[in-house]
Amino acid sequence: MTHRCDALLVGAGIMGATLARLLRQLDPSLEVMVLERLPGVAAESSAALNNAGTGHAANCELNYTPQAADGSVPIAKALAINGAFELSLQFWSALVEQGVLQDPAAFIRGVPHLSLVWGEQNVAFLRRRWEALNATPQFAGMQWSGDSAQLREWMPLVMEGRSLDQPLAATRVARGTDVNFGALTAALLQGVDMRLQHEVVGLERGGRGWLVEARTPSGAAQVFEAPFVFLGAGGGALPLLQRSGIPEARQYGAFPVSGQWLVCRNPEVIAGHNAKVYGKAAVGAPPMSVPHLDTRWIEGQRALLFGPYAGFSTRFLKQGSLWDLGRSVKPFNLLPSLQVGSQNFDLVRYLVGQVVQSQEQRLESLRQFLPQARGDDWELAVAGQRVQIIKQIDGRGTLQMGTEVVSSADGSLAALLGASPGASTAVKTMVDVLQRCWPERFNSSAWQARLRALIPSWGEDLAADPERLCGLRKRADAALQLKGS
Ligand SMILES: Cc1cc2nc3c(=O)[nH]c(=O)nc-3n(C[C@H](O)[C@H](O)[C@H](O)COP(=O)(O)OP(=O)(O)OC[C@H]3O[C@@H](n4cnc5c(N)ncnc54)[C@H](O)[C@@H]3O)c2cc1C
User: Which of 8, 10, 23 is CA-nearest to residue 431?
Assistant: First the structure.
């Protein structure tokens, strides 16, 4: 028997959940179905402990504002990410106001975002970054300090026992957030038609658009037919995209990077820190490996994590196969993949260094943030798997650090590849998918009216209207009960 629906979404992570919820809100008559290979939702990258839970608004992530060769600090990427996160906040608050999401504290909390650097050059860089960002309406509330008394007030444990023989400075945005993307995914999927333990193993054009074959653990095959398919399979999206046979897939390869955290088990230490403190990445480190000390809120409990430490595994999903990387290499992406390896020695050296480091070396990195950290208080845990994009640009393989939506020319199939900033910008990315793949309905007056009720500033430049930005932020903070300190 073939199951039919209007939109078939593969993967019950934050991306699939966001797209499913958007479709349900924009047109409740649509039949939307989600297929998920695991027995539960949000068990891969979107699970709370598999990611850092930072509401990426570019408040503290220094990799979004790398210093240019002339010493200036370009902020365009930070502004774009901040704008995308505002759209997420608007969407989530509209769903809370409409009663679709019941308990905002279950998935989002106010936690200040800080960037911390030491050494003269880094302090000068942070100062330039702060000056550039602080001059914009989006970051007008960002604070700067190089004063140790002020820094002690912002992050007492980070300052405790710290030698002050080199300059130290930080910026702070009180209105930062910690997001439990796992809890949010589950809440967004409430009431959505889902088939768990259905692993998509094949897809081809046919019927009303696409015929998708899924396998259950017993080996039984099920066929689904839909005019639109979204591959929100996280690390599993590239192999499925390749299986679809669309020509657009031939530009891509992938490179997996795994991660680990140190998780604090001492309640006193956990209670003594209330911030996400991001530092500067080591030379060669991929942007997602910027070290940070994070206050988290998981299942109503405060937690403290440090990391991520990068690692290497050939799996594309945490619960994937060791053959994932090998199987993704095809004649058309072999050369670009080799080119990426040969062009990124710093990255390779960094990953090797991370993989072979001892627990004592990990603790040394932690002590750069928490000088008094005791080994007994911290346990190692495995984070989610990130699959970075290798894209052919002008015939050469290039490693891409962001996310990218790839779609077929007729808009009947879309896939999300890549990792960061990921979950925080899921709302903008999924609305972009609809704009690209469902243009007629998207531009209809009915969808536009509903979209604006969900995301009031969609298509607007909030930087040009600081009063409106402030009003929308107040509304989101009230609906989501955000109280940044
Ligand atoms: C260490 C780490 C830290 C991160 N920190 C942050 C952060 O602080 N802030 C942030 O915004 N983002 C962060 N991210 C990125 C974020 O976690 C991801 O962007 C996001 O979770 C991706 O969501 P997704 O729905 O695309 O994928 P996933 O959550 O991985 O979901 C994909 C789903 O598809 C399923 N699936 C796969 N293949 C198949 C198949 N063949 N058939 C059926 N189902 C399938 C999987 O089982 C899974 O449930 C981090 C990621 C990592 C790894």
Answer: 23
Calpha distance 330→176 (Å, rounded): 42
What band does 378 get if pLDDT is binned at 50, 70 and 90? very high
Provide the Cα torsion 441, 443, 444, 449; round to 10°. 110
Give CA–CA dist 413/226, Å, rounded: 10
User: Do residues 55 and 177 make contact, with C-beta atoms less than 8 angstroms apart?
Assistant: yes
Nearest CA to ligand 1 atom 53: 384
Any idea where the domains of the chain sit in the sequence? 252-398
Predicted confidence (pLDDT) at residue 183 exceeds the cutoff of 90: yes
Inter-CA distances, 217 with 45, 70, 194, 316, 370, Å: 22, 57, 16, 20, 45
Residue written as token pair 């193993």: 201
- From the CA atom positions of the chain, what is the Rg in Å? 22
Write down the pLDDT at residue 359. 86
Query: Residue 269 corresponds to which tokens in the numbers above?
Result: 């230490």
Q: Looking at ligand 1, which residue's alpha carbon is closest to its atom 25?
A: 13
**Cα–Cα distance, 78 to 142 (Å, whole number):** 13
Q: Residue 451, Cβ neighbours under 10 Å: how many?
A: 20
Residue ranges lining ligand 1, Cβ < 6 Å: 10-16, 35-38, 43-46, 50-54, 56, 181, 199-200, 232-234, 236, 240, 259, 308, 317, 383-384, 386, 416, 419-424
Is the pLDDT score of 55 beyond 60? yes
User: How far is CA 212 from each of CA 195, 223, 447, rounded to the nearest angstrom?
Assistant: 13, 6, 28
The number of residues making up the chain comes to 485
The C-alpha atoms of residue 1 and residue 437 are separated, in whole angstroms, by: 27
